[in-house]
Amino acid sequence: MTSLSSRRLARFLATASLFLLWSCRQDSPSPTGPQTMLLNSTSSTPAHPALTWGQYIMRNGSIVGSSLVVADTDLSHQTAIIQNSSTNYGIQYNPVWSPTGGSIAFARYYPYTLGKPDSIFAIDVSVNNKGVPVGSNLRCIVPGCGRPGPAWSSTTSMGKIAYVSMGQPAALYVVSQSGGTPASIYSTNSSSVGLGRPTWNPDDSKLAVPRSDGKVLIFSTSNWTLIDSVAVSGNIEWSRSGLDTLAIENIGGGYYQPLYYCDPVTGATPAFGGVYVTRSQATWSPNNSALIYATSNGASVWKVHAFASDTTQIGSSMSINGNINWKR
Questions:
Q1: Which residues lie below 8 Å from residue 175, measured CB to CB, with a gap of 6+?
Q2: Scanning 59, 159, 196, 324, which has its CA 20 to 30 A from the CA of 248?
Q3: pLDDT tens digit sequence for 298-322
Q4: How many of the other CB atoms lie within 10 Å of CB of 138?
Q5: CA distance 145 to 156
Q6: Which residues fall within 8 angstroms of residue 241, CB to CB, at 6 or more apart?
């Protein structure tokens, strides 16, 4: 009996290992891995990738595939560094740059009919000798995780990726940027309370995560204890080095959502910034002078100066899936 149980356990572990390997495959339509495709670039000057986003591939009004796109700050040199011609290969979502700007982590999810788990992947980004962005070394960081997307730490010394599992209850995890066993940081312990994508402060001493019941939780990364909370919740992103401010898109009813700014260090009440965004997290510029966000339908991109109410449309006729992220 003991021998039979051991064999059953061995078969189970082998099957589980194959499932995780399958869920972490590159799933590229090409056996050579990521594909590069210029989307709008006619310039002879080299690209300087600064923005990244997931993008639907549309045909006759239907979603048929998905890309991971990089572009310059002015949206020139748009290049798909991953080009999946079928949604069966996975849909790229909510990417984020690494601290050095040399890699991108992103969520990948699949049509429900496939029964495949969402996963977090990473890919290296460089510019080749023709001045064109290219992706390489596509790898799975965490199989079977949630869809809000990853948050790469702000500094190379921290070297971690935070993410949220969308199970019931929702939970916050942190994992090494090279993968491995995730560490559980926090659980809502409630099937009715969800979590959004987390964000690191500029020196990685704090990690914030929004709850769906109207608050942002802030944890100390030295011992992963809850040290503060903010009474406004929604999509959040912490500012870059030189500023310690949370940009919070306050999720509520309606199409347009107020953009708040909050200084967690002083504990100040979140202040309305004077502009409304459309259910997509705004991302800070490297010098904290401006933010960029996509409309909720992914059709256009807008820029707003920090703490101001001016907005300028910088992109249109797009098919963005989720949030844009600006390189630090």
A1: 141, 142, 160, 161, 163, 181, 182, 183
A2: 159
A3: 888 999 999 988 889 999 888 898 8
A4: 18
A5: 23
A6: 154, 202, 203, 328
